[in-house]
Fold this protein.
Amino acid sequence: MYVPIAGSIDTLAVAAAMAFAGCPISYRRWAIVGFTLFDALAGLAGSRWAFSMPPVPAVLLEVALAVPVLCLARRRPVYYLTLPLLFSVDNLLLGAGDSLPARAAVLDGLASGALACCGFLAASVALRWDALTRFSAFAKGAKGEIA
């Protein structure tokens, strides 16, 4: 049985990395749309054409391409929008000859979009929690100094 979420775990990780790196909220919305569309289209194209690569090298290729883009995006945030395209490469390369039906490709794209949303949300919560704990530690320290 085909489980679309299994192929979209990389989307969860890269969305969280984008949020931790400082991706603006307006770009996050577009990135979710990009993950959804590009993963669906790449899955459909990969199932129709004879591309073939094992999963580990495909993901390592994505990471190798994404690290410099993340570094550039910290200075020019528009580069964050290229990451959904880069992280659809695995769907293109792994779909070799499976003849994935269009419905499964759409489900894969929707799962990627949902996991991108979860990745952005989880990273945002973690960043807020970190800020809250730092502030509370600062407040406790300030109270101790005054008294």
The chain has one domain: 4-121. The mean pLDDT is 82. The first helix runs from residue 9 to 21.
